[in-house]
Amino acid sequence: MRKDDASFLIPLLDERRAQQSFRELRLPAGKVDFCSNDYLGLTQNAAVRADIHRLIEERHPAHGSTGSRLLAGNYEWAMSVEKDLAAFHQAPAGLLYNSGYDANLGVFSCVGRKGDTIIYDQLIHASIRDGVRLSAAQSFSFLHNDLADLEKKIKNATGNIFVAVESVYSMDGDMAPLTAMAVLCGQYGAHLIVDEAHATGVIGNRGEGLVQQLQLTDACFARIHTFGKAVGCHGAVVLGSQLLRDYLINFSRSFIYTTALPPAALAAIEAGYAAFPYMQAERAQLQQLIHQFQTGLPDRELLPSTTPIQAVLIRGNERTRQIAATLQQAGLDVRPILHPTVPKGAERLRIVLHSFNTAVEVNELIKVLTA
User: Fold this and answer.
1) Is 37 a catalytic residue?
2) Does the predicted model carry a pTM greater than 0.85?
3) Which of 207, 172, 179, 173 is nearest to 194 (CA)?
4) Could you give the angle at the alpha carbon of 49 between the alpha carbons of 46 and 54, nearest 5°?
5) How far is CA 367 from CA 83, 297, 364, 370, in A?
6) How far apart are CA 197 and CA 227, in angstroms?
7) Active site residue 166
8) Structural domains in the chain?
9) Which one of the listed residues 116, 172, 195, 333 is annotated catalytic?
10) pLDDT tens, 221-259?
11) Could you confirm whether 195 is annotated as catalytic?
12) Is 79 helix (H, G, I), strand (E, B) or coil?
């Protein structure tokens, strides 16, 4: 049998190396966490861990879901979690997906049909872009958070119009002007879809997200809350009408053709949601650290953000890598965000603050950055 030859991949990888954009997997190796999306520390929370084990023992003896939701993989606990999530987020219905990527791919690939239009923020997450590419609808981007450009694109749209934004942007850390966007969508009959991945657990008095904080639930066609960030586990829920839920069950391929979340994942989702509504002190600690970090870096170019995601613009892959390496050597786990993940000239350090970080650790981070 001939050994398969993968040498045709070498030039592509060499090109990435030449561009200083070659990606590798690395371990945190015990450094201070300024990198993960575990904003509230729920992955390390002993009470949450105990609650997960209790729920698994009480609710479901099997450790696998055994199939897709439409075959053997649907069970009462999954439907109960969906109802609880919908109630918490003030939505008529919810549908679980295996990840935020799966949810965005599943929604955007099927909700827009031929003749429809999807308009998305130019900084929207890759998972939404991939879903849009799979859609039969035409699509256009609009300038980041630019209401005038969004209105221009809506005026030129045809069919059912869908507007896709993130409440908190994962690379810049800024928020969408959702109230004004909701008004604009209402004016033109467009359907607003909001990805709340980086607002879940962090924004709002109970961690309910930006849409609920702004009382815009009725203005949204769909909301996507993912659990791999502040909830500290895995999976996602798409919130909307019962009609939307029925439609996704029938047309969303990333829901239909995949094995369902196992009971352990449901336990982690339930335990996380039981904990973070009561973590006001942790959210207050986050805001204190954000203020400390921003006031401590007067000479660095910080993108405007009041969220745990703080982006320090460096520019240039090589220079950004060098500064990130210096931080790593100091025991601070900060990762460089390079082109092509961000546009050329927008390379940055993406610094993520957590409720479990201390003022001393943030001071050390500032010290190294200002050296």
Assistant:
1) yes
2) yes
3) 179
4) 125
5) 47, 9, 5, 5
6) 7
7) yes
8) 29-45+279-369 (3.90.1150.10), 60-276 (3.40.640.10)
9) 195
10) 999 999 999 999 999 999 999 999 999 999 999 999 999
11) yes
12) helix
